[in-house]
Amino acid sequence: MSFSLWRDCPRRTARSPRCALILAGLWVLSCLGLASCERPSTRASSAPPIDSTLASGSCDDTRASFDPGPVTAVLADQRKAWNRGDIEGFLAGYERSPELLFTSGAAVRRGFDETRAKFRARYGDDPETMGQLGFEILDVRPLGACAQAAVVLGRWRLEDTPEAGAGVFSVILEHQIQGWKIVHDHTSAATD
Hints:
The chain is α+β, with helices and mostly antiparallel strands. It contains six helices and six strands; from the N terminus they run ααααββααββββ.
């Protein structure tokens, strides 16, 4: 998307579909905080701020030098915690705020507390009820010019539990002061 088109839009007619599309796209990016390196002001203040080195407004080559290692390390740590029956260790990968979104089974859960309650109700906090979790990471990519967020696409498999299954997931992680945290999780189970 070219920002020179953004400057031209105010001079175009309000009915220009191209201009409307560009303005809508930039509005969405600015609402998500991806058009700049500043945390959006529309997010509730309970969410921890982004690392100040990324919030400074200077992106330069941050996206070009994006390292997926710390992002995938969050998922590796979650898998290890799950497999030792440590539900709190698993949940440490999520943002602890009311803004966390977790979607699975056609249900949308909002907030860390609701997400934690659902995991505990379904899987307990014992290796015998939680089983063994595995991930296959299919894609990791930065979001936005400053790489302060990333999206991960993968497959999951849960074995050795009555809740066994498999499927796909996509998670959005945001780089915060505490490190990379999952802020949006969409998980689906295979129907086979």
